[in-house]
Design goal:
Blueprint: E1 13-19, E2 22-27, E3 33-35, H1 42-50, H2 56-63, H3 67-75, E4 88-98, E5 102-109, E6 115-122, H4 127-139, E7 143-149, H5 155-158, E8 164-166, H6 168-179, H7 186-195, H8 203-216, H9 218-222, E9 224-226, E10 232-234, H10 237-253, H11 255-258, H12 269-280, H13 290-303, H14 316-328
Parallel strand pairs: 4-7, 7-8
Antiparallel strand pairs: 1-2, 2-3, 4-5, 5-6, 9-10
Helix pairs in contact: 2-3, 6-7, 6-10, 7-8
Amino acid sequence: MSKKSVFCSSLNVVKNGHKAGKQLYKCKDCGRQFVGGKRINLSDVEHDYIEGKQTLAQLSIKYGICIKTVWNMLGSMRHKRVISKDKDVIVEMDAIYWGRYFGIVVIKDAFRNKVLWYKFIRGHERVDDYVEGVDWLKSHGFKIWGIVCDGLKGLFEAFRQIPVQMCQFHMISIVRRYLTKNPDVEAARELLALVKTLAMKNQATFMEELGQWHSRHEEILKEKRIDDFGKKHFTCPRLRSAYLSIKHHAPWLWTFEKFGDLPLRQSCSLFQCVIGLLFAGCSSAESVSSSANSQRYTLSIKNHPTIFTNRPHLTPSVSKVMEDVDNSCQWVTNIYKLGEKFPRTI
């Protein structure tokens, strides 16, 4: 079998001595010299690292090279952020974590299912992270017609010029975190049952029922006890916190009702679900540093620019939701007609 030049793929190659015990070859067409032996394809190494979830040691054994060489090859991975050509968007934003201190903040086009912007973070997400993402979208010509997000403190004030819908699933999770899944107090059980119907009721109905609940249990919310040091404390502080949290977030829980022409979703829970599926194949390994994991996730986004491209792995219920999402994309064709009615853009 003839040796092929690694530079010009020419077969007009001859032997050209040895160096460090390795055969050297020279191409007579391009005049360049190269070392013989099997060449390792960088894309194969990246694929095994991301999709195959191989560690550095495993890759070293598989390709017959030292761990440092594998690290250098993976260190050359680069990703150029692709800017979407669709500039009129409704975005979903949230953060997902692997472990306690490593995560990623993602801003996604709600109906085209494209990741528009992302940022790796150490520790907890901050409002500044989301503001940075929105400012980046603004600088690249995007027009944001609405936002679906969680209840991070300060997020609503930061984007007060844009219609913001708080994720109702996050609201239920907040209340459940205060009350637990099986609360002992009857008032807590009633409040938990009520908040679970949040997505099935409009604002007027839900707030009326919440007011009725408050009237029945107003005394227990105000009841206080005295500790051993003579200080007063609320008897049911977590129940009180859950109720006040609902009252505080109520103005943003039904934004989709106020802006009926904008197809705002009530929740971004599906966003969390599919983002988790996207990165399930590249979970963090203990033997890999956080910088290497960042490269792993970056390439995962690069290889899956449209999150919902492949849908056979989705459950029937999620597939039905995706069908509804596809039908909602019709709003894009008439987006410019909304300019006069909804001028609050960035």
